Amino acid sequence: MASEVPSHEIVVAQTPEERQQCIDVRINVFHLEQHFPLETEIDEPVLHEDNATHFLLRLVPSLTPIGTIRTVLTNGDYYKLTRLAVLKEYRKYRFGRELVESMHEWVKAHALETNADRRPVTIVCHSQLPVQGFYAKFGYLPEGEQFDEDGDPHQKMVLRLPL
Question: How far apart are CA 50 and CA 150, in angstroms?
Fold first, then answer.
């Protein structure tokens, strides 16, 4: 019998506290669980903060943070999906899919505000190899050769998202 999905919401992180909750989830997943260097979660966010939008998945009514995703508008010509993370005990509820879908909806709305000719927008992610299939389900296609990022093999994946 399937477990009942806990009550939850996905919000755009608006406050420093909400952004910190996103970082805390990422530290839990990428550093503590997957053993990536802590610096990638502490130093890296500062580089993209002006063009970054963070999404926070949290339980309701407790507001306990359990997942996050970030998108960065890179030089105004494409969006980069980064730092998708869901705490291990909540992955069985397919919250990763909900986070990606929420980010895609936000990208569409943002692009419609700024893209007068309504051409499809490009979203790029650097996928860890074991989860390439996850991104492929959304239509992301591999591009280029595999590469090392933070000591782990990755594949650039690209989606052309119609508006």
Answer: 23
- What is the distance between the alpha carbons of residues 92 and 162, in angstroms, rounded to a whole number? 29
Residues of the chain with pLDDT under 50: 1
Q: pTM score, two decimals?
A: 0.91
**Residue 43 has what pLDDT?**
52
In 3D space, the residue among 47, 66, 46, 44 whose CA is nearest the CA of residue 55 turns out to be 66
H or E element: which one contains 149? strand 147-149
| pLDDT of res. 70 | 94
**Are residues 90 and 67 in contact, defined by beta-carbon separation less than 8 angstroms?**
yes
- Token pair for 80: 């980069």
Q: For residue 33, what is the DSSP state?
A: I
